[in-house]
Model the fold of this input.
Amino acid sequence: MSEVGAIVNQINRVAIVGGTHGNEFTGAYLVKKFNQFPDLIAKPNFETVTLLANPKAFAVGRRYIEKDLNRCFLKQELQNQTLESYEELQAKSIQNILASSAKKVDFILDLHSTTANMGLTIILVNNHSFNLKLAAYLNYINPLVKVYRCSFQSFEENPFLNALCELGFAIEVGPVAQGVLKSTLFQQTEKLVHEILDYLERFNQGEIPSTNETLIMYQHLSVVDYPKKEDGAIFGMIHPKLQDRDYQALNPGDPIFLTFDDETIFYQGKSTVWPIFINEAAYYEKGIAMCLTQKLRVNL
Amino acid sequence: MSEVGAIVNQINRVAIVGGTHGNEFTGAYLVKKFNQFPDLIAKPNFETVTLLANPKAFAVGRRYIEKDLNRCFLKQELQNQTLESYEELQAKSIQNILASSAKKVDFILDLHSTTANMGLTIILVNNHSFNLKLAAYLNYINPLVKVYRCSFQSFEENPFLNALCELGFAIEVGPVAQGVLKSTLFQQTEKLVHEILDYLERFNQGEIPSTNETLIMYQHLSVVDYPKKEDGAIFGMIHPKLQDRDYQALNPGDPIFLTFDDETIFYQGKSTVWPIFINEAAYYEKGIAMCLTQKLRVNL
Done:
């Protein structure tokens, strides 16, 4: 893999974002905690700001009001004056807050949660070497941290909030139901946030923490939909033998779905893949039962 | 405990209801399965009907559109012509379908799911001896089945769909996130439905299956809200040591909440209680972090 990205000299402003999806409480309440106890995220050599990204959706405990906010950050859509749903306007407002030249942030950490058994996952949206090295460091100090590289090949394809800034990534924690705070995951997520802020502080001091020389990265391959009838109705669910097995090898012939009339559907691919986002609640409406990845060893 | 209820001679018509809450997929998809394969619930000596209770909420994957449907069945509200929200009208329509004299059902099974670790729970809304004996039978053949008696003392206090019929109860299964199908729980719930239908069939044949002579029942005592500030904002979550410990003894001095600034809040009650519905997503808006019960041994 080729490393990309401009050389980074100094991080001056960091954004911690939560509640981009209003029913993902871990990030939303962490932002509220940091607002109440700002000393927790204060660092001597950069400024940290927080943002509750979708306050209306958070207030009603839903992922979004009109449109998934984390699909509203395509550059051409942010520039399109005719797009006026709540989330499209909110995306423009967030762009103004985080990415306008006057108070542009250098690093965005966007906190998400999932009903899938994904533990602590870093979601990379680009191959910037700064992000890769930070991800490798986080995995080095806590091997349970996994690194997923999603499918976007270029900035222009990326509709996520993290598209606003080359540096940074999303954190996805699970399993936790929507609209629920699970204290163990809340604590693990907060610890990860502090480890990231500590790394940035030491980076600014010229002390780049040591890492592994390689990084295990789960590279997005494709998505798999639920088994559906012609009218679009689901007729099966994640197989018991696949449920909760995110990041574990799925081989050709392994069970993936169980139909409502108890027939097993097997994985028909030709090679081993590593599924993630298995049975994520928010992805039913997107037609995604899981994402398939390949497991890569990346030299840093 | 005194047994109550008129003598039951014959069950003629049974309703299996799912999707009373639109984001509780287990029951909704079981109803769809039974609609597709009606032979599964066909019995020689009674009729079985199915009902997807809140189709609009199910279509958008939300608990309800305007108002929790399972709080719309108070007798005086069903008779109140001025109540016209979607769910209030739907409740009247369901009353007409299930409880009008022409096609009145004798038994209602209402299928729910929860984010709490409640396994398979029978929720009794009255002390009718028929319901108690059936619950005892289900616990006898599967000791993992728990029986919860909620707080209603009389028919007039009960706003649940099960208020439409003296016989029957709700089944609550978990843990499962809202908007998700978990195949293991789907299968366990279906098995329980079949065990109930088999019992009703044998009851009609005069062969009442044998049961234990006593029943362990978790009797509702009170609800506990999350720790909240004066403005109503939550400042703590279920303690890691209480999470997932539904139906386990909670003693005075045991941890119940962890505040966002890492302080433990201990249970201040004077006697042992058995919490259930711990961290149920839908109950955040109701101000319920858990329900406390007492564990009773009931002679049948």
In short: Residues 183-204 of chain B form the longest helix (22 residues).
